[in-house]
Amino acid sequence: MNPKDYYTSINLKSTKLYDYLTSLSFDKLTWFEHFGFQASEVDISWLDKEPTLNAIHKIQPIKQLGILQVFPNTVYDWHVDLHRLSCINMLIKHKHSHCLFGELKDEHHINVLELVYQPQTYYLLNTKKYHSVLNFEESRYMFSLYFEDEIDYTSLKVKLKDLHD
Questions:
Q1: What does DSSP say about strands 62-70 and 37-42: parallel, antiparallel, or unpaired?
Q2: Domains held by the chain: number
Q3: Torsion-angle region of residue 142: left (phi > 0), alpha (psi -120 to 50) or beta?
């Protein structure tokens, strides 16, 4: 399994947005159900305040920003996204969690690849590949976004070629 088929890190690190998100009191946010996650919107004005998002937005317009929560001691089951062709995520806070991509090996086994998130780092994800989240101990909070027009991972990776490894 080649990691670049599943995810790619963006070279420009988050600055102001990461600081803002990590300082939030998550229990004071307004949460709603969103495809099995609890979600909270992030003000779209961050497109102007965060250089990395601004650079991405100029290449592929962004529609919506948000935070996704996974509760403690839960698994967000293996799936491919039905509503997104690709996305950009950044881990905000967790204690012990794993983001896994998988390919069916046989009727009993799945080959897995783990995305180990680095702080302040945005990742372009191929949401059309099977993936899952295993979360332990405390809630896990992830920044995520939607594009104005859905675009597949490979095409977006090409468009963002100057922003990633």
A1: antiparallel
A2: 1
A3: beta
